[in-house]
Each structure stands twice: as C-alpha cells, then as structure tokens.
Amino acid sequence: MNMNRKRLLQLLGATAVVTLIFGVRVRSGAAAAEQVIHLTAKKFEYSPSEITVKKGQPVVIEIVSLDRKHGFTIPDLKVRSDVKPGGKNIVRFTPDKTGTFNFHCDLFCGSGHEGMAGTLVVVE
Ligand SMILES: [Cu+2]
C-alpha cells in the first residue's frame, strides 16, 4: 500500500468518526427539546389557565395540586391524568394538530368543579 492511499484511508476513517459523533449529538439534542409547563390546580382553577405549545414537539406538563385530588383532561387530544396532591403529576404527549383545545377537571371536587377549565393552544 503506498503512502497516499494509506493517508486517504486514515482521512476517510476520521471523517466517518466525526460524522457519527455529530449525528448522535444532533439526534439526542432533538429528543431533549421538550416543552415543560408548570401548572397548579386548586378548587376551582388551573394556573395558568392558558398554555401555548408547539405542534410536533413533546410536551411535559407538571401539575401540582394545592388542595385535593383533581383530574386533568384534554379530550380532543386524548390526554388525561389524575392530579394527586403531595407531588408532581406528569402528563406527557406530543400535539399532532394545531388549534385551541379545552382542558378541564374531570373528577368532581366540589361546587364550582364545572368551571375548573383552561385552554391549550397548539401553534405551528
Ligand atoms: Cu373538579
């Protein structure tokens, strides 16, 4: 094997390694792009009551109840979770359509429960 050919192979090898590392970096970076939303729930409201997120990007909603057990559901996006007091309740989903979607409490929590609601806006 002459020197030029050996040098060329070394160069190709180095390029492959760099490409591999860069490719892995880019992929893990994309996976980490979560939209983390902090929400509190109490009789009879969520705060904030309006959330805006991006379509196609994973959403993590961390909900803390300030009083009792509540529910959290976004029927149009088939999302629901119990919201228990004493810790974070994690809701994960990736919105696949844009629009304005209502969320509400679906566990009866007292008179006023019917009005415990908010809006999720999904933008492009
Ligand atoms: Cu309720």
First CA to last CA: what distance? 56 Å
Largest sheet: 4 strands, mixed
**Rg from alpha-carbon coordinates:** 23 Å
What is the average of the pLDDT values?
A: 88
Can you tell me about this structure?
The protein is of the alpha/beta class and 124 residues long. The protein folds into 2 domains: 1-32; 35-123, Sandwich (Immunoglobulin-like), CATH 2.60.40. Helices cover 23% and strands 42% of the residues. The protein has one helix spanning 3-31, and strands spanning 35-42, 45-47, 50-54, 59-65, 70-74, 79-83, 88-93, 99-104, 117-123. The strands form 3 sheets. It has a 4-stranded mixed beta sheet, with no helix packed on it. Strands 3-9-8 form a 3-stranded mixed beta sheet, with no helix packed on it. The radius of gyration is 23 Å and the shape is elongated. The protein starts with a helix and ends with a strand. Bound molecules: copper (II) ion. Residues 70, 105, 107-109, 113, 116 line the site of copper (II) ion.
